[in-house]
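Reference record
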Amino acid sequence: MRTNKMRTLGVALSTIFLLACQPKDPLPSWNQTEIKKTLIEYISNQAAQIPEEDRIAVFDMDGTISCETPLWFEMAVAVQGMNDQLAKDPSLEQFTEYQYAKKLSINPADTTVLNHWVVEDANYLDSIIMKAFDQMDHEKYIQYARDYLTTAKAPKYDMPYGEMFYQPMLELIEFMKQNRFQIYIVSGSMQGVIWSICPQTIGFDRQHLIGTTQALSPIYPKDKEASFIIQKSIYQPKNDGDGKTRNIYNRLGKIPVMAVGNTTGDFGMFHLVSTSKYPHLAMMINHDDAQREYDYEPYHGTAVPNWQDSLRINKWIQADMSKEFNTVWMNKK
């Protein structure tokens, strides 16, 4: 009897030991697919061929690591800013961009706005963004955006905008950090917005958060730190397409080895990493999951019907959210 018990205990201990020795899954929120295997192989093994100082990756924000539909973070904040102005001065409603902001505050998915805010002779989308915080201190804008994104709830989901990050993407970023990648967020959104929400969500300092740079006018008071006042323009180029490529090079002075995006506007940085002399990887997150998130084409504005051909020809990865993500939203701690 004692021998049988000892044998059973031995088997149990061996099982526990074997389980404990199994490598921990670095991407538990990803399904077991070939793309997951490719990512793990690249980060764990191929990256060893890349000097640490050149192990640089760039990620888009809106739609890549966080939700961008129907309104991305930048636009959700700007709509609220425009409506704050309307509350103080109702006469502003005579202007189309304020009418649109009012509609979007009621229904962020209002197609009478989303399908018409960029027309041949006017760009009301940019107008909302530029006018919402004109002449505000930039640090106050950052705080305003942080307060709004961490409290205002997004449509369709009962959660604040600031919690609508994708758990699989956060795991991927953390896995890359563990393998000594330097990671930069390169977003088309205004830099103040990504500065407002990303540091506490993904633990990045401002130096690793590259957004479209709003024009700022410095003020040098004698009794406190300098302030920077928002102007209704940006420092070119905007972070989109080849603009991302130029801004990455201007900020980093190097060619990244990995890029992740979700629209054809990210193709510029995909092309950039594809020229690296080191093992490289470019991946597009494809939104095809209407049940858990949204389903939409990977371009903004002008249609790009042959986008999948570009992926195939350049050997870029298409990661369909419906197939690759075991879970979508980030885990709440």
Notes: DSSP finds 13 helices and nine strands in the chain.
